[in-house]
Amino acid sequence: MTQTLTRRRFLKISATTFGAAAAATQLPPIAQVIAAGAPAAKGVTATPTFCEMCFWRCGGIAHVRDGKLWKFEGNPLDPQSRGRLCPRGTGAVGAYYDPDRLQKPLIRKGERGKEHWQAASWDEALAFIAERMNRIKAQYGPESVAMFNHGVGVRFIQHVLKSWGATNFAGPSFAQCRGPRDVGFALTFGTGLGSPEPTDIANTDCLVLIGSHLGENMHNSQVQEFAQAVERRIPIIVVDPRFSVAASKAKYWLPIKPGTDMALVLAWCNVLVNEGRYDRAFVDRYGKGFDKFVQEIRQYTPQWAEAETDIKAETIRATALEMAKASPAVIVHPGRRVNWYGDDAQRSRAVALLNALLGSWGRKGGLFSQAGIKVAGYPLPPYPESNKPLADNPNRERYPFADEAVTTGIRETTLTGRPYPIKGWFVYSSNIVQALPNQTETLKAIDALDLLVVIDTVPSEIAGYADVVLPEVTFLERYDELLAGWGRRGWIALRQPVMPAPHDQKPGWWIAKQLAGKLGIPQSMPFDDIEQYLRARIEKSGYDWDKLRREGIVLGPRQPTTVEEGLELSFDTLSGKVEFYSDQLKDKGFDPVPKYTRHPAAPAGYFRLITGRAPVHTFSRTQSNPLLGDAMRENEIWVNGATAHKLGLANGQYVKLRNQDGVVSNRVRVKATQRIRPDTVYMVYGFGHTNPMLKSAYLKGASAAQLTTRYQTDPLMGGTSIHGNFVTFVKEA
Hints:
The two termini are 24 Å apart. The chain is 32% helix and 15% strand.
């Protein structure tokens, strides 16, 4: 069973505990790793910075005791952490002392993926990269080098590549995570949702979670507010095939049949409209195409939806009325990582329309309008212009409503050479072998490359296929670009180094500056060091640089973020209204109002595989972290107890999984439980690492990504489905 780790437990973990964990994995205890460092000055220092253990980027304070990194805790000035960090954030100490960290630049020798490397100096590695890049540029043009990226640290490397002429940049956070949601909401309200989502859970009177695992998907500020909502005893409605942590706190748990969420949301809309329980004043003033919307959803009655979803009609109606009773202080959570079945932008649009019916947009207790903060720029030379279309989505012909680059679009172009060849990839802090569906397609695309550069802190799967691996420092060892945050109040957060690099790792800004010199464009980084750049931007913005270094946070002025605070609602849609009926979708050949489509059922003897996250791990990045690995070393496959009994599976037994295409996973432990539907199995993704350089996580648990061989692509914006695969069990001899 997944073990939730509290900050208190982290601080109480003893060297004996680490010794036991290390013995099991043939690694030195973390206490020994820490002790191996050079002697340092006595005393305790505290340095504010902001976290990169996940994209929430909470402000924290790192404590160094006697020269050793001691603990990392929340910064009470920060609106994200509010003085508290989640288990992953607290576990950042383990990231610094991770024994599997990349230590020096590596250049591949021999065949890709065979893990034959030669250690190199930074000068050698960057010269190798620059020579290959310029060769590609001369033959194909600079647009033929693309980048996959994730995180703040990529900003300067991305800047140098743009200055050199590269134009194709994509992050899995769009097509493999939040993109369908942002596009669905933008088509409805005229704006996406950003990170974090503007959910006023602190003041809501009803919270609806559809596949959102608050408490397991550890988004710090939302989880804090969720705990307060539970304490206030507001009605919580959780829609999930699995009895999640959030479901255990809910008034209603709706164990929906996977793939039928759209049917439920449209039935809720039907109830609100037919019974006159929607916010008529909001719809009359701000809505467009409402009459046509009403006609389209007339067919989606609770009785019809019961047959599709396995949720009783009376429960559908009761939960709809529960929302209406709380309106407008109600949130149907827009979710995250919502690329499930291939029609996800339309499903997210249905969620947006449900929020519109409830009048929650821009309201206290609903979805507030985010406030920002202005930060002055730095005088940088302009980027060269290109006459080529973007490779992922040329002229928006593939995905007409994608407003960011699509990772699988770049992969497709690499495979086909259309509209032009992609011959080089930079991959920054993103394990795209695990992040993108169908690993075979990714590896085939890599075979077509003349250059693959991976920049990371740990040797992920993608690093095993690189031509050059560049070891970056962790976020506790570097300056990065300023974080200008959006929320109830805008803020600026400063990341600054707390500890020196333990080996020959370098920060992203330094890598970028050195690479710019090798490429012959040193003018693209016209500052001596990163501190000069950051200080100039802060002081030009009218803020005190020294105070920011001491406190870590600058808060912007207060602005109205809800109607109750004086906000005037406006909508950046084509009509200037909330679009219940979308003419622009219709003009492109898509449904102007979301329609329910039935998805394929599991073949006989197979079960739909759904996935999620654990509170102590971030994607596939933290399994080798000795603190977080101690909390959860491997994942499990959840299977209904009755199903397990029927198949002769015992709780705790190791099995392998075989998907519908014959792909067989690593071994994984069975979790037989009544907390999941009989037709569904579930696992936390990010495990099952196959890079032997990642010694402590190698072959621990099973990889959901490995089993995701089939996927549907969202025609609106290019999102790729992850819950369209089915597995059966292979017992070990």
